Amino acid sequence: MENPRDVLVAFLHDPPDKAFEIKGHEARALRYLETALGDAVSEAELKDVSDVLAATAERLPAPHWTQCTISWKNGHRRVHHPLSAFAPPPVADTPWTEAEIDRTIAALVDGIDVERRFLLLWRRLPEQLAHEHGAWFARLPADTRVPDHTLWHHLDTTAALKAARAGESEGAAFLSFSLGPVQSFIAAARSVRDLWSGSMILSWLTFHAMLPVVEQLGPTALIYPSLRGLPWLDRWLIKDRNLKGKIDEPSVDLRMTPCLPNRFLALVPWGHEGQIAVDLAGRCREAVKREWMKMAEAVKRELDQRLGGLPVDWSKRWPEQVENFFEYRTAVLPWRECASDATLAWLISGSDDFDKAFPDAAAVRKLAGAIPREEQPRYGQSSAGGWQAKVELSARLMQAQRSIRHVPPAAEADSPGQEFPPKCSLLGTYEQ
């Protein structure tokens, strides 16, 4: 993994208990990071541009926290979900201490290197704090003024932006991946077992397509889907990153559950002329193709053993049919090339007027202008909708890729006088 120390600093730049006491949270973050890393962290490292970029992408405009103080009502601590109609249970009145959180972090990172410290804290810290100090630790908001996402969402986004070098001159890029065809693959099922098998294969292959990104940039690089708690990733952390005993082994039932869609969106570095992003996209395609061929070869060996009486040439068309069945598509969108509002608007709507192209985002931006200058936070709030527009543009790039039909090579006839080889009698789609 690249720069695990910097990514870990970005991941814990806000302390887990920030929502309970904004004042002094930076000093607590430095203390927790010193425990997590085993060495001191400077304030300059803590105040990275990745935090500002993440806040800009996630939050609605609001005054500086000193001008919009949130206090606990009548001394009762409750964390409300903005879309829930149910009253949440009160947070325990037992006071937490910095020492308790410090001990939790120290126990997790004991005896492992920096890369594994980051991976383990990302995976275990939210649930461990919730287990030891109260379930509310898992859902404390990133911003008490606009509690529409948890602190852990913000920390994940900040770490992703840091790993993708979004604040550097070359900038970041969205890498999208899609595996298909899905509908025809699932439609070929003739039993519930077939349906499960098809879903399992698609999920498993997509997981392997993600691994080059996870190995190089960490699991926070995956914007969609979220990987925290995924049984297959837990298994990978245990086996490939030697975290046995630090992470619970997922049960067989969990590992046998198709738990991923056939696509993902990742935040990656763009690199010089797109070299890093394009290389990662190619490695994702190669990884999924390699796993598919490995799976197909295992099936072929099993058929050879069980059906030993078949003709010698029963599998002569196996390689070409297996190799050309799936389509592995990737699309890369460099942020630097669509950094301006006018460019985003033109690419999405054909007009360079951002307000007309994105009226909802424009309305949100006006909220920032309504805040008196002396009450505004230190980061800009007039770029709402930029992240969402880039995500939409990335999706359109992938859709354009998928509109190009994949045409497999024509099957060769069995004999000189035969125009086309016969189709199979079960599905009618493959030559036999």
Question: Keywords, please?
Answer:
single chain; 432 residues; alpha+beta; 17 helices; 47% helix; globular
Give a structural overview.
It is a single chain. With 432 residues, the chain is of the alpha+beta class. Among the domains are: 1-77 and 94-163, no CATH class; 336-402, no CATH class. It is 47% helix and 6% strand. The protein contains 17 helices and 4 strands. The protein has helices spanning 4-11, 25-37, 43-46, 49-58, 98-109, 114-133, 151-163, 183-187, 192-217, 231-239, 252-255, 275-306, 318-323, 341-349, 354-357, 359-370, 386-402; strands spanning 172-180, 222-224, 263-269, 327-334. It has a 4-stranded antiparallel β-sheet with strand order 2-3-1-4, sandwiched between helices. Helix 5 (98-109) crosses helix 6. The chain is globular. The model has no long low-confidence stretch (mean pLDDT 89).
Query: What's the Cα radius of gyration?
Result: 25 Å
How far apart are the first and last residues' alpha carbons, in Å? 45 Å
Q: Largest beta sheet: what is the strand line-up?
A: 2-3-1-4
Mean pLDDT: 89
Number of strands: 4
β-strand amount: 5-15%
Give the fraction of residues assigned to helices. Answer: 40-55%
Helix/sheet category: alpha+beta
